[in-house]
Amino acid sequence: MERGTERDAPPRPGAETGETAEATAAGRIPLAVVVVDRDGLVSHWSSGARRLFGAGKDEAIGRSAVDLLPVSGVLPDPDGIGPYGAYAAYDNLGPDLESSLDGRLAYPAAGRARLGGPERGRHEEVPAPGGAARVDVLWWAYPLVGPGRERLLVLAADADGLHPADPDEDAQDLAFERIAPGFALHTDFPGADDLARRLPEILPSMSVDESARIVGQVLELGYPVLEFSQNDRVPVTPDWGVPRRAERRARRERAARALAQGLPLPQDLRDEGEDLEYAAVRERLEFLTEVSGRIGTSLDLATTIVEVSKAVVPRFTDVAGTYLREQVVAGEGFPEGVPDTTTMWHRVALEHTDEPGRWDDVVPVGEAMPFPAHTPFFQCMTTGEPVLVPRISEQMGHAIASQFEKRDIRPLITGRSMLVVPLKARNVVLGFMILLRHPERVEFNDMDRVTGGELAARAGLVLDNARMYTYQESVAETLQDSMLPHIPPRMAGCDIATRYLPGTLLGRVGGDWFDSVKLPGARTALVVGDVMGHGLNSAAMMGQLRTAVQTMAALDLPPAQLLRNLDDLAQRLGDTYLATCLYVVYDPIASELEIANAGHIPPVLVRAGDGRSELLELPTGAPIGVGGVPFESLRVRVAPGDRLVMCTDGLVEVRGEDIGVGLATLCESAAHPAASMDDACDTIIRALNTRGGRKDDVALLMTRLTGIEPDDVAEWRLTLDPAEACRARAVVREQLHAWGLAGLADNAELMVGELVANAVRHSHSSPLDLRLVRGDTLLCEVDDDDHDLPTLLSAGPDDESGRGLRVVSTLSREWGASRTKAGKTVWFELTLPRR
User: Does residue 9 lie within any of the structural domains?
Assistant: First the structure.
């Protein structure tokens, strides 16, 4: 211990000035340094602690500090009062010296205080006659703050080393009473910079970051000093002797050489040999723990690959190249069979510490190649075990480089140490990593091979998790995409725009869907539904319900009846099938909506006249699958230009927020003017999707109800007389000429005649209805009271019938037939000429 007195401090009582100078002459004292973790267990134990307290490092590490340190008030309370417990309010400093606790944050009932700042004390035990040696320990305690587990630093010194060499017992007792630990700024003493610089050397086996963090806190909280009076302070300077790091490095090198040669260690090196082995194992375990924490943060395959590569460079290796099998990269499922010389391996990542661009041209990421049987890579991939090459020789470098056409890779690999580790999952090699160290770096050894194998095993599991998630997500998204319809932007009397957003949760595929169905009478059915839950089951159920809605809509069922039938179907499919659904039928001729709701959020109607938006008040109804509940429909009058917005709850519902906020935002954003339907959809998505917390998928369907003008519709009632076919052809020709569509008259006249003739032949008693609608296309419909739908026939040369529908199918743009409540409707469309 170096002793120094404050420049203005008076001499100690009872001492001459010369004595004070002698007391402050240079001297040294050994320190015990102990670090205690948040559980009260010893995490670091210095050689000085072994000498002072008698326990070796292996015995001390991991044990409760209470059992090892005879330090009053600094350790966790055995009664468990708080983290690091409570601290003794009396520290046995003796009279005339201030208490180390000063009563701070005291718990009067317990007579104890928490460690809120640096503390110090003195522990003295006088044994009974014939007992153990006298114990007299000075201690300093520092609370530690930081990301690690270390929470308490304890410095301790043997007070016996401070006794004056005076046989006078009274003088010795006086010295005992007058020495106490304390704190001061290290800058108060000569050699302050050297004190601060060398302080890390006493910390036991800690990383640079850990020691820097602890030293910084010690200097900030107060440098340990000895108080000989209220004014005399002496900085505590560890007894470094020979520079600690240099001495320890020399001893470790001697121990390492002896271990490498298989020689027994001398007595003075046994502790170093044990420390060396322990430190090496601990370093490997810390490295694996760190790497495990850095990889697997994402289930994205590409991100995981980059994480694995970056985790090992530069701490474990200087170059890391990752190769994966073709099936893994393509997301085609789990690869089968043992790899062979035809297996293609994709280089998916390359990390290195060389100058930028040195590897890029020679071994670019994305390249796929097989590996010959004579290479260590093939040995690794077929055996599934790490392969160690201490140094790549010229011959091996030439053999490896031979597979790289027109690229000389030898300068990059020759002379380097190489370790090839397999990336395995479920005993199948998914890929491998090639690890290279610079020639000047220590080559890989057997311990590195074990470490690399463990690293690869952990990385392989993480990659397999990402691969499985990517594969299942791809399957689910493909299934869902195949079920979501591609709705045309224009239908009779309306424009349509849609948006679908997948959820942000893992396994984000859900059961939201939208659809539109062409109905007789130029009407359109609009559907939005939401199957409860996520994943493949929800997507599969969505496909079943969507198909059922399509089928029942083609029967032209009223909305309430369609939902009733859909609910019955869900009951038959299983009691776990639950979904909400909103079904709307738009009649552009009557300018009317007929709406039925099954537990879905209501639609928003934006009026074209004043731009006002409103949530339509609908009978809510129960979700599909509940069973035994009625469904009601509501008719709403609309005007040309009005917009109907239908969506699923994922757009407006955010966890922790009332859904009314989202619905209000939906109404406000839907009313915002936009140049097009797509722009209007984007406005809604921007307004609602920017709010944090959305997890569910979203389906949005917006319809602009343009309507059909009465002048664009012509209707006739026909009797069941075969001569009505002739009349039908005449009125159609006349109407098309009036509309300026004379170019369509010949084909339209021919097809109308065929449809009316068939209707007259198969109708029972009710008259026929003929309708022409001019919109984006020319639509012609014929209604009769027969429920049997017509089918195409293959008529022979001698057959007198069976050719009418063949003519309609050939000449029309599109044709079809659907059942109605009264019978059926057969229709065809013709493309209008360009204007």
Answer: no
Q: What is the pLDDT of residue 807?
A: 87
How far apart are alpha carbons 565 and 582 in whole angstroms?
A: 14
CB 559 within 8 A of CB 553: no
CA pair distance 345, 426, nearest whole angstrom:
19
**Residue pLDDT, tens place only, 520-544:** 888 999 999 998 877 677 777 888 8
Count the domains in the chain: 5
Same domain membership, residue 258 and residue 218: no
User: Mean pLDDT, to the nearest integer, of 386-393?
Assistant: 89
Q: Decide if 215 contacts 35 (C-beta within 8 A).
A: no
3-class SS letters over 169-234: HHHHHHHHHHCEEEEECHHHCCCHHHHHHHHHHHCCCCCHHHHHHHHHHHHHHCEEEEECCCCCEE
Phi-psi region of 814 (alpha: psi -120 to 50; beta: other; left: phi over 0): beta
Q: What is the pTM of this model?
A: 0.53
Residue 604 has pLDDT above 50, yes or no: yes
Same domain (yes/no): 251, 234: no
Q: Which of the listed residues 474, 507, 536 is the one where a domain comes to its end? A: 474
The CATH number assigned to the domain holding 778 equals 3.30.565.10
For residues 684 and 735, membership in a common domain is answered with no
203 and 256 in a single domain? The answer is no
Q: Are 755 and 716 in contact (CB under 8 A)?
A: no
Please check whether residues 35 and 105 belong to one and the same domain: yes
Domain that holds residue 778: 710-831
Round to whole Å and give the CA distance between 563 and 188. Answer: 86
Per-residue model confidence as pLDDT tens digits over 433-456:
889 998 888 888 888 888 888 887
pLDDT for res 118: 87
Residues paired with residue 557 on neighbouring β-strands, in sequence order: none
676-682: long-range contacts, CB 8 A cutoff, minimum separation 24 = 676/497, 677/489, 677/495, 677/496, 677/497, 677/702, 677/704, 678/497, 680/497, 680/643, 681/497, 681/498, 681/499, 682/499
Residues above pLDDT 90, as percent of the chain: 21
Residue with tokens 């298989």: 262
Three-class SS string for 691-728? Answer: CCCCCCCEEEEEEEECCCCHHHEEEEEECCCCCHHHHH
Helix axes 724-738, 745-762, angle to 10 degrees: 150
Closest CA to 578 of 626, 519, 640: 626
Q: Do both 428 and 505 map to the same domain?
A: no
Q: Tell me the C-alpha distance between 431 and 301, whole Å.
A: 13
d(CA 68, CA 60): 7
**Do 500 and 645 sit in the same domain of this protein?**
yes
**CATH label of the domain that carries residue 584:** 3.60.40.10
Q: How far apart are CA 51 and CA 160, in angstroms?
A: 14
**Rounded to 5 degrees, what angle do the CA atoms 372, 376, 379 make?**
80
Q: Is residue 71 part of a domain?
A: yes
Cβ(274)–Cβ(251) below 8 Å:
no
Only one residue has tokens 């019978």, namely: 823
Q: For residue 107, what is the domain's CATH number? A: 3.30.450.20
Q: Is the pLDDT of residue 83 over 90?
A: no
**What's the CA gap between 780 and 771, in Å, rounded?**
6
Which of 446, 474, 502 is where one domain is finished? 474
Whether 144 maps to a domain, the answer reads yes
C-alpha span between 751 and 632 (Å, rounded): 40
Mean pLDDT of 748-755: 92
Do residue 734 and residue 607 come from a single domain?
A: no
Q: At what angle do helices 745-762 and 804-811 cross, to 10 degrees?
A: 150
Q: CATH number of the domain that 337 lies in? A: 3.30.450.40
Q: Is residue 361 in a domain?
A: yes
Q: Are 1 and 224 in contact (CB under 8 A)?
A: no
Structure tokens at 489: 């932007």
